[in-house]
Amino acid sequence: MSDEGGPLFHIAFGTADYGLRARVTGTNGTLETTLAYWRTIAEEVRRLSPSGLLVVDDMDGLPPPPEQLLQFVQAMRGQGMEAVRIAYVERHAEQIPQVEFAGLLANEHGFDARVFAEEAAAVRWLRYGER
């Protein structure tokens, strides 16, 4: 996805024994960008129906502000993500508390999501973690 200023995000998809892997790069900072890349991921989830989803966030910029996170979670309901375990890797350690808050909201609204600082731990959870 792009605008006149250049690409906002790029998603590289791949498959693995645990399901689908999506590595997101680009620039975040708005609810609109976050929704756009998550809707793109949801399209691929609907297409492939994986049991697990690993999202590796390598984006520059910040996640949406806390007051918009509930809006984001509610907007993702019905997109096909409720049927897949979601492991989210946040590469920027200082953003993990805010992303964990989004994960808690997601779990309260019917998603099975968990946030990780390291990809290896996320993959282990997708392969062997409690369901």
Key descriptive features of the protein:
alpha/beta; five-stranded mixed beta sheet; two-stranded antiparallel ribbon; 4 helices; 7 strands; 40% helix; globular
Computed over alpha carbons, the radius of gyration is 14 Å
Strand order of the largest sheet: 3-4-5-6-7
Give the overall average pLDDT.
91
Secondary-structure element string: EEEEHEHEHEH
Residues in β-strands, percent:
25-35%
Structural overview:
The longest helix is centred in the first third of the chain and has 18 residues, at 31-48. Strands 3-4-5-6-7 form a 5-stranded mixed sheet, with helices on both faces. It has a two-stranded antiparallel sheet with strand order 1-2. It has helices at residues 31-48, 66-76, 96-108, 119-128; strands at 2-3, 6-7, 9-16, 19-26, 52-57, 85-90, 112-116. By secondary structure, the chain is α/β, with parallel strands linked by helices. Helix content is 40%, strand content 28%.
Overview in brief:
The chain is α/β, with parallel strands linked by helices.
What order do the helices and strands come in, and which of them pair?
Elements: E1 2-3, E2 6-7, E3 9-16, E4 19-26, H1 31-48, E5 52-57, H2 66-76, E6 85-90, H3 96-108, E7 112-116, H4 119-128
Parallel strand pairs: 4-5, 5-6, 6-7
Antiparallel strand pairs: 1-2, 3-4
